[in-house]
Design brief:
Rossmann fold; 2 domains; seven-stranded mixed sheet; 11 helices; 46% helix
């Protein structure tokens, strides 16, 4: 994870357009959160606590709190600006969220060892980490989980085959142009879209792993029961139970 990855999410223009951009670039994120919430085996009325790694504008936390109206969330994000957006999105639901500002690579300094919960979730955040950083974050998340708790990560991946990855990237760009070209000059055509994506990924320090590597990270971090729960092209939902 590069030092400027978090800083990029404090830029006013980036923050203001974040959710709209996500719907153009990642239309499956709604489906991915649906999958994650269905996997969690808790009664909807249960009083549970979850940890959100990289809350952003609160998209996943909002859906989680709607699904579990007695639940609470510990929110971790490094950007004050994004947390402000999350508070606005959540409205009255924000009363059930404990917002913590900080780099989730130092989770042990943000969430005390005495804190425990039933779930940890993350979406479109952990791909900023390299293999070792991700393993350590997941290991720290495992410490937070109570026995039987679940960790769900909805994120992007890369393909082991360069040929297939190239084709997936072409499909990705075609889809973004189709959804965004009419209203956003950044997505006017394939060339402008690819240039925007290249710059964005360099600024964010994206380091997506393959599905095989992601599952290996879970195992190395201490999870014995993990699986790919959903995947399409370059997006996947991976989960594990403590």
């Amino acid at each position: 994870m590069k030092s400027n990855s978090i800083a990029g999410y404090e830029l006013p223009a980036r923050v203001a357009s974040y959710d709209e951009d996500m719907d153009v670039m990642h239309p499956h994120r709604h489906k991915m959160v649906d999958v994650a919430l269905k996997i969690l085996p808790f009664d909807p009325t249960a009083t549970i606590t979850a940890l959100d790694l990289g809350t952003g504008t609160g998209f996943f936390t909002h859906r989680f709190l709607d699904r579990f109206p007695q639940a609470r969330v510990i929110s971790v994000d490094g950007s004050n600006s994004m947390v402000d957006l999350a508070r606005a999105r959540l409205g009255a639901l924000a009363a059930r969220v404990d917002f913590r500002i900080g780099d989730f690579r130092q989770l042990q300094d943000i969430v005390p060892e005495s804190a425990h919960g039933e779930a940890v979730f993350s979406s479109y955040a952990l791909h900023h980490l390299n293999h070792g950083e991700k393993r350590e974050v997941i290991r720290q998340a495992l410490r937070f989980l109570k026995p039987g708790g679940w960790l769900i990560n909805a994120d992007i991946v890369t393909n082991e085959s360069k040929v297939i990855e190239e084709r997936i990237q072409q499909l990705r760009v075609d889809g973004i142009v189709r959804r965004g070209h009419a209203t956003d000059p950044r997505f006017h055509d394939a060339v402008s879209t690819r240039q925007f994506l290249n710059q964005l990924e360099a600024t964010d320090g994206d380091q997506p792993l393959t599905l095989t590597e992601d599952l290996q990270v879970f195992r190395e971090a201490g999870f014995t029961d993990t699986s790919v729960l959903w995947a399409e092209y370059r997006e996947a939902v991976i989960g594990g139970q403590k």
